[in-house]
TrEMBL record:
Chain ranges of the N-acetyltransferase domain: 12-173
InterPro entries in the record: Acyl_CoA_acyltransferase, GNAT_dom, N-acetyltransferase
GO terms for MF: acyltransferase activity, transferring groups other than amino-acyl groups
Pfam families: Acetyltransf_3
Keywords: Transferase
Species, as recorded: Pontibacter lucknowensis
Protein name: Protein N-acetyltransferase, RimJ/RimL family
Amino acid sequence: MTRYRSFETERLLLIPTSEDDAAFMLKLLNSPTWIRYIGDRNVHSVEEAAAYIRSKVTAQLERLGYANYTVIRKTDQEKLGVCGLYDREGLEGIDIGFAFLPEHEKKGYALEAALEIKRAGIEEFGITQMKAITVKDNVASQRLLEKLGLKFSKLVELPNDPEELLLYELKVDDEAAHAKHTYIHPESIT
């Protein structure tokens, strides 16, 4: 089995989301804030959550070496939310995104996790153009994106989604992105 990178911050572990996280993902995907701001994914059982992880997370992880990370609090190993780098259909470039269970919002976890994922995306995965999308009424997400250094660019629509979304962008200097670390895809190591 290929081993993918995990990350760590002062309070958090960021581990690639796997089928072991299916029960947690079921809860997150059906939380009121996920439904309101991201949308109903029609995942209603642990089995459907495992299938969602296989098709949306594992497939991208195998293809690119990064995807969705389950955010775990170090002190008690509780799963708080997710943060990741996504290759979304209809969006050129890599999208940084995050979602937390309502009881773990407004505690700085999303910013802490997203700063580390942003750093890893730039320094370890060589991402030179990072984007983010959010709905117009998700002001908390917009503020967090601005704290990450992303700037509002324009309104966009994604395929199969009639809602206009706010697009935020961050262009990374190519030299800075590759100067500190060169990422080697796990499958290229023999």
